[in-house]
Amino acid sequence: MGLVELLWVASMPVIKILLITAVGLVLALENINLLGKDARIQVNNLVHYVLYPALVGGNLADTITSENAVLLWFMPVNILITFIIGSALGWILVKLTRPPKHLEGLIIGVCSAGNLGNLPVIIIPDICKDKGSPFGDSNVCYEYGMAYASLSMAVGAVYIWIYVYNIMRISASIVPKEEHRTSSFTQEASGEILDFLSEEEDPKNPDNMGGDNDAYTLLLSSNQSEEKVKVSISAKIKDLSGKFFGNSNFKAVFSPTTLGSIVGFIVGVVPLIRKLMIGSDAPLHVIEDSVTMLGEATIPVITLIMGANLLKGLKGADTSFSTIIGILVVRYIMLPILGILVIKGATQLGLVQPDPLYQFVLLLEYALPPAMAIGTIAQLFGAGEGECSVIMLWTYALASVAVTLWSTYFMWLVA
Fold first, then answer.
1. Is the pLDDT score of 28 beyond 80?
2. How far apart, in whole angstroms, are the C-alpha atoms of residue 17 and residue 376?
3. Which CATH number is associated with domain 3-173+263-414?
4. pTM over 0.85
């Protein structure tokens, strides 16, 4: 296949993404306002809690089996390598450009986490269905391509919420927030101090009364003391477990997407459950059909929201030009070059199966723009929202050229 044909095949999915993104941006304009701030928040919640878990879980259940799960073991390792290399390059960029402290986590995050979710799910099936595809039969390519893309999406989501979330959380906590956040923190701190004082120094607290109370305490029976100890220990255990499972970090790790990935993986890998739910002859196939129907709405909705969120980047923010250039160099030059070395080395060592489509997906994971979930995390912590919008605007504007060129080269390299 010639270079021009490969370029045409690689450009089609990217052009589709750009067109839908442009529609989302137009819908967010003030004079239209169909995707205003409140609407985006509600739709983002719908995507986060319903659509995205349905897409990930449904695709994993349908495409991942106990046989190909063993063959695909290198993909989670490869995604981890992209995060490690991207973080190292992002850390170097932070040291060179010296951005404000609250932006350091954001910069490392956008350098490490690529859009492993909706972009591969859009790009790979479109390439498979194109007449000029170098990956053979379109149906076989689509089946295996969706398995690769689904696993990439699931693993990427888990890594983002475990790793990038905590990096940005630590960075955002270094610098004091706006006045309302400061006052909120002061109120929380004073509330904790008052609680502490009420427990330790409150004269109404029986534990702090002197004289008669001390004598009374000494006269307590041993059985009553043991019962009090048992009650206090059980109460402490209950309190600690409540704090652990209610902790925001725990909830972030076990996000709806992560839980959807776990359920989908179990359904796909366990033969008995798979026979009950997957396939037109399965007794419970209506569940799979319903989940698939929900998942199909995810990609266009996410892409529309992505375009609407980019509108904020058009208004500008205090993001240095050198930082933006550095992020573009990391994501579209350094990472893809290093990714070629990693995948070629892994193939030579026999760690990667000699499947051109599989190798193409592994390479593509190094050449994607930053994950859109980073914008959600920035909004969650209230640190670097405007800067994140500017970064997303530039990275996704140039993705039309960068992803197309790298996809063309990757297809030529593996095919």
1. yes
2. 20
3. 1.20.1530.20
4. no
